[in-house]
Amino acid sequence: MTLSWLSIFRLGLVQMCLGAIVVLTTSTLNRLMVVELALPAVLPGLLVALHYGIQITRPNWGFLSDAGGNRTLFIVGGMGVLALGGLGAAWGVALMETAFAPGLAVSIAAYALIGVGVGASGTSLLALLATATAPRRRAAAATITWLMMIFGIAATAGTVGAFLDPYSHALLLRIVAIVAGSAVLLTILAVWGVERGVDAQPAHDEQSFVEGLKEVWAERHARNFTIFVFLSMTAYFMQELILEPYAGLVFGLTPGQSTSLSGAQNGGVFVGMLLVGIAATGLRIGSLRSWVIAGCLGSAASLAAITVAGSAGISAGLMPGVVALGMFNGMFAVAAIGSMMALAGEGRESREGTRMGLWGAAQAIAAGFGGLTGAAAADVMRTVVASDATAFGTVFLAEAALFLVAAAMAAKVIQTARAPGRAAMMPGE
């Protein structure tokens, strides 16, 4: 028995909860450290890189899921660890203002917990989806769950932005506590009984984790797609840690306003994903490869527009540029995810979790590397040039160039991925 549409939606709620907590640490807390506390952008960059770096353990979580781990336990337990990390990260920001060293120590521990929580919960969730979803529904399941994750990110960023002004540390801690607690409770309700109701028996073999990972890496499609994921995700995440500080330093936006800007960006991601899901899967318009390329090219153009808006002092151009960036990012991401879900079932059987873990690790490493590189480059450029707009704009243009390279690579790597059939997106099936 495979996952029903209702069960897929329930698992999507877990993705939504993951996004809701993580967005607070990668956008709101990052902006508070750079603007309100006047700390170098490389500091939150290093903290976020730490949480992504720890996610290099994702293949191991996936292998455990393949080999007989209790996925429900990993999903719920990981979410609990993530919630504790989110609370600790907010507390660390509050401490840094009066006691920097203790605040930094708390933040390091908190971001490490965030990495463990996301790796355990997220990878186990994807392993369950990959093994228990009928092949004809895999692409649709990926689209649904990622749309829900983006919805969680956008809704949380927008809602928190509305309630965060006038800012205080106490208010921040209350809001994060509410978000984290709600995420854990909703996750428990969402996964309760789902795994017991499907046929997703783990593989029973004598291979070690290293042997299983080597086996997957030897598969040409898996290896080439891993390289593409790393390159494209580096481009995707370079602006993550500097967009809100850019909005605050160049355009004078308040913490609440810049958080709302992040919410609008993720709203654009949601629209882009929905557009591709309907067009490519439902209406059979375009291949997955063409949507990936279009998303990369559009992202490059949007970054150029954001740069021009800052250099020319056109404040009205910031929001449209950011929304467009989100939309094209979403187009690229959902098409890549569709290819990922299709490739997860190729090669040796009962290795779906290991493949998803491998690609998740590549994405996590790229996210940490891209975010840290973007933040460090912005710091360096701010010491070289007098204008913040020029400093940040230079980094945005470098990111745009990387998106162009990713588009060229997609044309070669995603050669056989096609949009799934119309039936894959029909909930009434």
Task: Please describe the structure with a list of short key phrases separated by commas or semicolons.
429 residues; Growth Hormone, Chain: A; 2 domains; 79% helix
In short:
The protein is mainly alpha-helical and 429 residues long. It has 15 helices and no strands.
How does this structure look, described?
The structure is a single chain. The chain has 429 residues and is mainly α. It folds into two domains: 1-193, MFS general substrate transporter like domains (Growth Hormone, Chain: A, Up-down Bundle); 210-415, MFS general substrate transporter like domains (Growth Hormone, Chain: A, Up-down Bundle), CATH 1.20.1250. It is 79% helix and 0% strand. The chain has 15 helices and no strands. The chain has helices spanning 5-36, 42-54, 58-67, 71-96, 100-132, 138-163, 169-191, 209-217, 220-237, 243-251, 255-282, 288-312, 318-344, 352-384, 388-413. The longest helix is centred in the first third of the chain and has 33 residues, at 100-132. It is globular. Residues 416-429 have low confidence and may be disordered.
